[in-house]
TrEMBL record:
Origin organism lineage: Bacteria, Bacillati, Actinomycetota, Coriobacteriia, Coriobacteriales
Gene3D superfamilies according to UniProt: Ribosomal protein L31
Name of the featured protein: Large ribosomal subunit protein bL31
Entry cofactors: Zn(2+)
UniProt keyword list: Coiled coil, Metal-binding, Ribonucleoprotein, Ribosomal protein, RNA-binding, rRNA-binding, Zinc
């Protein structure tokens, strides 16, 4: 190991933002840290939002609210998709109602035709009793011969 090029390795007091303090060895005599084993989410099982020195604020200042603009654009896009879906659903419902109305119309026409046919059959049935007497007479004639 070369002499004179390495820093001194001294006792170091480490202070966490949660208030925990412990001693170790390092090249500096004091350190301040954001997370330690007493407050880190991995060890505690609790989520903790760490905003050291206003990093989120500095990011917002640096990019001029670009992140918020993206969030707003995403919300607007989502709202547009929802409106389009609602419009398509309304069109689908209107088409379904139109088909149902057409089906009801065809059913009514069919019922009319069925009634007309039934009326014709009834008319023929009313005329039919006169014909069976004639057919009986015709039927007896060949038997007599």
């Amino acid at each position: 190991m070369k002499q004179g090029i390495h820093p001194n390795y001294v006792e170091c007091t480490v202070r966490c933002t949660c208030g925990n303090t412990f001693t170790t060895r390092a090249t500096v005599s004091e350190m301040t840290i954001d997370l330690c084993d007493k407050c880190h989410p991995f060890y505690t099982g609790q989520q903790k939002l760490v905003d050291t020195g206003g990093r989120v604020q500095r990011f917002s200042d640096k990019f001029g609210g670009a992140a918020q603009a993206r969030l707003d654009a995403a919300k607007a896009e989502k709202a547009a998709k929802a409106a389009k879906a609602a419009e398509q659903e309304a069109a689908r419902k209107a088409t379904k109602e139109a088909k149902a109305a057409e089906k009801a119309k065809r059913a009514a026409e069919y019922a009319k035709k069925a009634e007309a046919k039934a009326a014709k059959v009834a008319e023929k049935a009313a005329e039919a009793p006169a014909e069976p007497e004639a057919t009986e007479a015709v039927a007896e004639t060949p038997a007599a011969e």
